[in-house]
Write a structure and sequence with these properties.
Helix content: 25-40%
Strand content: 5-15%
Low-confidence stretches: 1-6, 82-105, 136-140, 142-175
Oligomer: single chain
Radius of gyration: 43 Å
């Protein structure tokens, strides 16, 4: 084989990395041994492939970490604490978000749950059985539970199923109460205060009306006084100050009067202790003003007034010492409806205060209770009709009571 053939490989034959390549024009010392060309350590180690492998595995690790973190975040959001329960936040437009309260659930003995309650029976026709008094809040709690269940879309999810105890404190705007029918009108509330005109002209209807109300609202605070006069002197409702009551005598004698024992709730008893004299001497005006200004009356979702509304507003202004007060306005039965109104803007502010108290606006929380009026004879005074409109309550004429009849099945809305 010649020198040239050993140094120049044939065309198309690629040389291997470990071959010794000697340039053609290089001088070769036949006595000097040939040496192999040394490659860098990185190439001998296979660095290019190693780098590509690291990059691929790095991308896979990053994707795996991203998936694990996102999965754990989602599970944390949806996981519920088994020792807490969520209260119903109420539907409607005013319901707040549900709140979680910690509540340890203590399972009851299954055997005790399966036991039948003992029944008390008596074969004697004259025997009397005394049962313990029910708590004051029983009917309210039952009604709250009913409204928070599934009947209406508001007021929350109610109590939890299973063995859990307690009822969630639902929050709502008051638009989702279940309406309870009383004398042909639906009252949307769970706590009500009632003013019943117990003057002589209405005495024959009082028992029936009270029965209609307590059948639906057993814990209603019912105040019974004579007449529905609204007396205003110098722009202020008479009855809120003791000095105003000193020389006033009841203008109408009440057939029945409220007693502290007849009021089922502590709020009603407290209002009675403070305002009984004012309600007795002045009547409806002092009652509404107390409902508007006393914090203890804020528990009531609705105010119900029953009367023939023969009385009305009488507003006067005191003059000089020893002189008779000047009558500025009156709208009761027998008064001239076309008589001029001599009141100034300041002397009419009490009416705006009443309307504002009962006003319920749009999606905002209500500022006051709904007002429901039941009349056997006359339309109520204009200021009360304005309060009904503002509260989104209702005026219902119940002239059918005079004949001992029953309310119509589908009563029409009264024209204000």
């Amino acid at each position: 084989m010649s020198e040239n053939s050993s140094q120049n490989p044939p065309p198309g034959d690629e040389s291997r990395p470990d071959e010794i390549i000697v340039p053609v024009d290089a001088e070769v010392n036949p006595n000097e041994p040939l040496q192999r060309r040394k490659l860098p350590f990185w190439k001998r180690f296979g660095g290019e492939g190693f780098t590509i492998s690291l990059a691929i595995h790095g991308v896979l690790v990053i994707l795996a970490l991203f998936w694990v973190v996102s999965t754990m975040t989602e599970s944390t959001k949806t996981k519920k604490d088994p020792t807490t329960f969520a209260t119903g936040a109420g539907g409607g437009s005013n319901g707040d978000k549900a709140k979680n309260y910690e509540h340890k659930i203590k399972p009851k003995n299954a055997k005790s749950l399966a036991k039948n309650a003992a029944r008390i029976t008596s074969k004697s026709t004259t025997a009397t059985i005394a049962l313990p008094d029910m708590p004051v809040s029983t009917s309210s709690s039952m009604l709250n539970a009913l409204t928070s269940g599934g009947a209406s879309k508001g007021f929350g999810g109610g109590s939890g199923g299973g063995i859990g105890s307690g009822i969630g404190a639902g929050v709502g705007g008051g638009k989702n109460f279940v309406g309870l029918k009383v004398m042909g009108a639906r009252i949307f509330a769970n706590r009500i205060a009632v003013y019943m005109d117990s003057s002589k002209s209405l005495q024959s209807y009082l028992d029936r009306v009270r029965g209609e109300i307590t059948k639906q609202f057993p814990d209603a605070d019912i105040f019974m006084y004579g007449g529905t006069k609204i007396l205003v002197v110098n722009g202020k409702i008479v009855g809120m100050e003791k000095s105003q009551l000193k020389d006033i005598k009841p203008s109408i004698e009440a057939y029945q009067r409220t007693s502290e024992a007849s009021l089922p709730t502590s709020n009603g008893k407290d209002l009675f202790k403070k305002y009984d004299e004012a309600f007795t001497k002045v009547g409806l005006g002092a009652f509404i003003e107390a409902i508007r200004t006393d914090p203890r009356a804020r528990v009531y979702n609705a105010i119900v007034i029953f009367s023939d509304f023969n009385d009305g507003v009488v507003q006067t202004r005191t003059q000089g010492k020893g002189e008779q007060p000047m009558e500025l306005y009156a709208d009761g039965v027998g008064r001239d409806k076309d008589a001029p109104d001599f009141r100034t803007a300041d002397e009419k502010r009490w009416m705006s205060a009443w309307v504002d108290h009962f006003k319920r606006g749009g999606a905002n929380p209500p500022s006051g209770p709904k007002l429901y009026l039941f009349s056997t004879d006359q339309p109520p005074p204009p200021v009360l009709i304005d309060c009904v409109k503002a509260s989104k309550g209702k005026l219902t004429m119940v002239k059918w009571l005079l004949t001992g009849g029953n309310p119509p099945e589908n009563p029409e809305d009264e024209e204000y």
